[in-house]
Amino acid sequence: MIGFFVMAILWSIIGMVPVDQVIQKVFAEPALNYGPTIIYIVFGSWFGRVLVDSGIAPAISLATNRVGKKRPLLAAILVVLVTALIFISAYGVGSVIAIGVILLPIMLSVGVPREIALSAFSLAIGAPMYLNVVLYNQIKAFFPHSIYGGKYLVFGALAMAVQLIAVLLFLIMNRKKLILLKQMKI
């Protein structure tokens, strides 16, 4: 945050922008426009907590764990897809921690190596961010005329699909490590 402040002042000085315009356009208006985004962040994080507290996220993870004992690759794929579905609407560090505390141990318990589990989980969080309304509204500050719908949703869905396919390919390419770890535990 301090970096933004310093850069805003620095670029205003370099650009020789008058002080009254700096105060109005650089500091006052953006702060007022950021209010709705803060509300989205708060409610997005709260929604992630509701998923955990209501039992929805744990129920999903238990079903995944049952399948995973026999087929670790399938379990890892299911965890990736569940994570992506959750983070279409959930947002924030709190949500990531709340869901990660449930799903990462499942991936580890069914035989997914730590580095593969963490990478797949992180990429699965990032994939649906193209469709996440909270993140969209943060970025909208830079593109005020953009609309969440139509062409953007098509782009977001395709971008999410491409990233999820990449994650699935990553898991498939590392399936031998999953099988080896499972055999070592037996």
TrEMBL record:
<feature type="transmembrane region" description="Helical">
    <location>
        <begin position="72"/>
        <end position="90"/>
    </location>
</feature>
<keyword id="KW-0472">Membrane</keyword>
<protein>
    <submittedName>
        <fullName>Uncharacterized protein</fullName>
    </submittedName>
</protein>
<feature type="transmembrane region" description="Helical">
    <location>
        <begin position="151"/>
        <end position="172"/>
    </location>
</feature>
<keyword id="KW-1133">Transmembrane helix</keyword>
<feature type="transmembrane region" description="Helical">
    <location>
        <begin position="38"/>
        <end position="60"/>
    </location>
</feature>
<keyword id="KW-0812">Transmembrane</keyword>
<feature type="transmembrane region" description="Helical">
    <location>
        <begin position="120"/>
        <end position="139"/>
    </location>
</feature>
